[in-house]
Amino acid sequence: MSNRLGRVAAVLSLAVVLVGDSNIMLSAGHFSALLYGGWLNEGGGVPGYLPTIATLPGTGLRDQAWPLAIEEIVDAQDFEASAVALTVNDCMGARYPGEVPYVFEAQDYAARIDAIMRALPAGPVVWIDAPYATHPAYDVACLGQVNTALQNAVSRWPGRLLYLNVNDVLALLPANKRFLDGIHYTIDAQVRIGQRIHELLAPVL
Predict the structure, then answer these.
(1) Exposed (0-12), middle (13-18) or buried (19+): which is 139, by Cβ within 10 Å?
(2) What pTM did the predictor assign?
(3) 18 beta partners
(4) Is the separation of the CB atoms in 192 and 23 below 8 Å?
(5) Orientation angle between helical segments 22-36 and 187-201, nearest 10 degrees
(6) d(CA 157, CA 119)
(7) Which CATH superfamily is domain 3-204 in?
(8) How confident is the model over 110-131, as a mean pLDDT?
(9) Burial of 186 by CB count in 10 Å (0-12 exposed, 13-18 middle, 19+ buried)?
(10) Which of 43-57, 66-80, 147-161, 163-177 has the lowest mean pLDDT?
(11) Which one, of 43, 46, 67, 53, lies nearest residue 17 by Cα?
(12) Contact 10/168 with Cβ under 8 angstroms?
């Protein structure tokens, strides 16, 4: 394992499903190493571990197929916990020509979060909030709205939804070490976020 990862208190001996967009896809190797002590496809991890169920980069809660997709994965394997990152791309406007951009509405967004929570395994869910992306395609006001919606969801799912403030984690790094392109995390950021996922899950599992 790379020295870059540093040491964590203990690796987890459980199956964690990662749910999310391209940032989850890019980060899966480091998250796996920090959770299990082994790189994906190199042994040392949990047998049958599934790193991601992401569909297309750019997906978010506006894609209403997520609950069914999650249920299909969860039905095929037992998972004790989940880590989710599914909000930032709801703030990027139209993703392709002709698409109507998602317009944030608090009640609708709360229902979409709850639908994901019901579809996930019964164990704890670390939900990574939306980073304040510096890429011009992302609406900063919207990012604040989806993060507030996620914070509000914690009280609806007490003891189960563990809120991960990714912006606090990123603030531990110099500005030029946070994003590769204004939205996708650097390796340093992936490692920091993976460590925080581990810290949140370890006490409750």
Answers:
(1) middle
(2) 0.85
(3) 83
(4) no
(5) 60
(6) 13
(7) SGNH hydrolase (3.40.50.1110)
(8) 95
(9) middle
(10) 43-57
(11) 53
(12) no
